[in-house]
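Lecture notes, unit on protein representations.

Consider one protein chain, 283 amino acids long.
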Amino acid sequence: MNPSPKTWFITGCSTGFGRILAELLLERGDRVIATARKIESLAPLAAKAKTDGQLEIFELDVTDFPTIHRVADAAIAKTGRIDVLVNNAGYGYVGALEEISMDDVRKVYETNVFGLMEVTRALLPQFRKQRSGHIINLSSVAGMTGTPGASIYNSTKFAVEGLSEALAGELSHFGIKVTLIEPGAFRTDFANRSLRVAPYMPEYAEALAVTRKYYETIGGQQPGDPVEAAKAMIAVANHPNPPLRLPMGKIALGRIRAKIAQYESEIAAWEKTILETDFPEHR
């Protein structure tokens, strides 16, 4: 038996995780507020709705802050409450730090970080008012481990990780929960339409060879099943004690465990130096 239906606000529903999640929720009987930069991309979702009012669609570019607040207000006016916010909108960028222009860096941050922040800020007053809510932020294994050639994308997801961890503490008093979703390689269009690639500098040909080859060949071969990922997000939202972080897939789990082991090893090797940086009376 399904838990009581919830109302979900999801960004980036044109394709990928956002689209699949919206479709599964409509099938379950939940209410969905689906947004995308181009509203026509959401038209096929209408056929999935079982009842009038089950689906509300809005055109929303998460870098347009005034529109974010207008859409949030309109969604709340139509539905009365929102139970789950899924910050899914975002895109990847491959390239060394030197290869990516600062203008492009700002654009990635505007979507992956600042847009996520502002959508969250727009819905927080409603969550506080109802003393409940669940914020699900799409991070990545790239938010936990760095990869040569993904430094800018890594930095945006590391920002989402730090923001979400602190936010969980800020909001727990209001009964609001926060979960980070950390997928590895999933068979969405992330490696295709949603990926930007910087102009190559020959100086980085060797250092970035593995990363570039990976993104050139991985499309359609990723081991992660996005339908199963969406089901896991639904399970998390309906759990009384959801995790702060949920890695997804064998690749993500392996890379995160390897990082934890490396970090523990470095701390053990340098513990004496680490502790000596305190004043003697505090060691």
